[in-house]
Type VI secretion system (T6SS) effector Tae4 (Amidase) (Mucilaginibacter glaciei), 119 residues
Amino acid sequence: MRRAFNYANAGKLFDIPKSYPGMLTFTGGDKLFYAIRVAEFNTFLRQKYYAPTVSLTRKNGEFDLAKIKNITGIIRFEVSGWSDATGHFTFWDGSSCVYCGDHNYFAMKQTTSISFWKC
């Protein structure tokens, strides 16, 4: 996600800064800056821009995706039980994740909540 965030627009509105309090970054081969940790990037988004537009938790074991259907934005999956990460950020195109690989974060039992920023 952090890579996609850098390339999301040509106007540099969403560039990740070289340094931001509490957020570890590194410089990529393209000379852009990348956030490393999901929790820190989450704090950055909330402080620099705004709180999530929609927050979802499981009801009867499922997430109510009707609340984000046909709306584009940034989506964060909060995940528990992983030793090396706290979740995943990606883009939502209104019906599916843009960069999730073969992961289905909606179905994963480790996904505890979803935050969505409308863009």
User: Anything to note?
Assistant: The helical segments are 2-7, 38-48. The radius of gyration is 14 Å. The CA atoms of residues 80 and 110 lie 5 Å apart.
